[in-house]
Amino acid sequence: MRIDTGNKIEEKELIQRLKRKDPSAQRTLYEAYARYLVAVCARYIPDDDRVKDVLQDSFLQIFRKIGEFQYRGEGSLLAWMRRIVVNNSLKCLRKKSFLPLFESFDMVDSDEDPDPGVSGVPVPDLLQMIRRLPDGYRKVFNLYVFEEMSHKEIAALLGIKENSSCSQYSRARAMLAKEIADYKKEKQL
Q1: What is the pLDDT of residues 33-51, one digit of tens each?
Q2: DSSP category for residue 3
Q3: Which of 1, 73, 101, 127 is most buried by a 10 A CB count?
Q4: Contact indicator for 52, 73 with CB cutoff of 8 Å
Q5: CB count, 10 Å around CB of 184?
């Protein structure tokens, strides 16, 4: 993978430089991926200051553990870094939450279609809607939609029951559907 930083750099070459603790390689990596990783982190954490803290901790961990990274082809570095950011985001939420993160809910039964479609809704507005979801809903929604994990995997990762993961995802979708519908009504889309 080529990383666009003004001058093209091969990902494999960058990884080798990172493993040698080259400060310019660390700067290149940060500049190339920070915006993307901020967006990943912000999907989980609603507070911008905490996003910055988690991102900083994540980059420190990336630089410390780069020696353990195994290159598996194009995109494997980004996937590895994204996993670190997601795990650190979840760890931050577990540490700093004063409310129970998960409740046991039954599946949501609704006659309404919880998918009004997102066409016409700008991505930044959609991401803000996701950030406003309650912690548990937001975690499950992000892991299911963006990380493409199964409810069984989510349950194991978060220490909850599989049906709790399903119901939290269903409720998150319903909440988002309502927000999207309200947004479209307000904007007359």
Answers
A1: 999 999 999 999 988 999 9
A2: E
A3: 101
A4: no
A5: 16
Same domain, 40 and 77: yes
What pLDDT digit, counting tens, does each position of 77-127 carry?
999 999 999 999 988 887 764 333 333 333 333 444 445 577 778 888 888
Structural domain boundaries, residue 135: 123-187
Cα gap 122→110, rounded to integer Å: 27
Position of tokens 């930083």?
A: 5
Q: What is the DSSP letter of 99?
A: S
Q: How far apart are CA 28 and CA 132, in angstroms?
A: 32
83 and 144 fall within a common domain: no
pLDDT of amino acid 127: 87
Tell whether pTM > 0.70. no
Q: 34 to each of 12, 113, 154, how far by Cα in Å?
A: 19, 36, 25
Paired tokens of 58: 């994540």
